[in-house]
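During the reporting period the student researcher (J.K.) took over the structure-prediction task from the postdoctoral fellow and processed the backlog of single-chain submissions. One of the processed entries is reproduced below for the supervisory committee.
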Amino acid sequence: MLEVQLSFTIVEASFNRVCSIVYHTKPFLRTKKWATICIVRQWSNGIILTIPIILFNESNCGEQLWKGIYKFVIVIIIPSMICLMNNMMIFKYARSSTNRIQTSLEGAKNNAHQRQHLSRRDLHLLRHMIVMFCIFVAGWSPIYLYAIIAVQFSFSSIIVSMFIILSELSSLAVISNLFLYNHELRRYYREKIFHRH
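J.K. obtained the following structure tokens:
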């Protein structure tokens, strides 16, 4: 259940990033009530998705193939797709924002030509989202693919340990990225830590 919660924490963080960027004018999204709703939603999704594993747990059998596939889908595939959709919404919003700014700054003749090319900011955002998506998928996929394959074959414990370390480093990179790229959160922590009265 822990890995499901971790994946859905990343999903929830990406959803909150969409809300803070796309719906930045909504004051409700900055309240404690909204934060509580997000936390409850994340834990509820994680608990609901682990119910089949708990209900159909046959202790006399070893690791079952369906469980490995199910875990791979709920920990890797579903969160990856949700994060990908959230990132696409952010990119679409940033791209339309860039186009609005360019339209107001440039003449109508140059506008059609400028819209065809990605701005440096949009390109940086797109690269960043692709890299973070790849870090998440490449970091977590091997351990769950191993769980599926290990039903038929056995592997060295060193390889398993390397897969676990890779998944933990992937999580660390994604979580660090969420904090580093969240300017409001960094400003909040700076004010709380350095400006205590």
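The committee noted the following: The chain has one domain: 2-194.
J.K. will present the remaining backlog at the next meeting.
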